[in-house]
Amino acid sequence: MGNGPLEMVRGDSAEWDVDIFHPITKAPLNLSGCTIKFAAKRKYSDADVDAIINITSPGDITIIPPDADGKAHIKVPAADTLNLDNVQTKLVYDLQVTKGSDRWTVDRDSLLVLPEVVKS
Which DSSP symbol is given to 29? Predict the structure, then answer.
């Protein structure tokens, strides 16, 4: 845990490199064979289908080689925040890693979506 609060601009693509650590040993988590999921919602109790951002690997999340280093790249498509009102919006996010039957929430914090100035 510890990638911290994130920020992006409404209607823009956003990208972050994240370090993923095993929740118990605190060592970099070997991401070989893992699925990574990033979801951002208005509140933690919102259903997954109501998430503003809901992306997984492979796809919008890629593991940065070597897998054992616990590094991943998250890319939020611009379209994911376009339907938000053009005001500052605070979301909450979780970053989860699944390997076999194990699942860990390796980070959770806030995502601040800033209003856009240029709208074209």
Answer: P
Give this prediction's pTM: 0.90
Name the residue ranges covered by the structural domains of the chain: 6-110
* Cβ burial 63-86 (10 Å sphere, 16+ → b, else e): beeebeebbbebebeeebbeebee
| CATH class, 6-110 region | mainly beta
Burial class (CB in 10 A: 0-12, 13-18, 19+), 109: middle
The residues, ordered by sequence, that sit 6+ positions from 113 with a Cβ below 8 Å of its Cβ are 7, 8, 9, 10, 52, 81, 84, 88, 89, 90, 91
> What are 35-93's pLDDT values in tens digits?
999 999 999 999 999 999 999 999 999 999 988 899 999 999 999 999 999 999 999 99
Residue 120: per-residue pLDDT: 64
Amino acid at 111: L
* Residue 53: strand, helix, or coil: strand
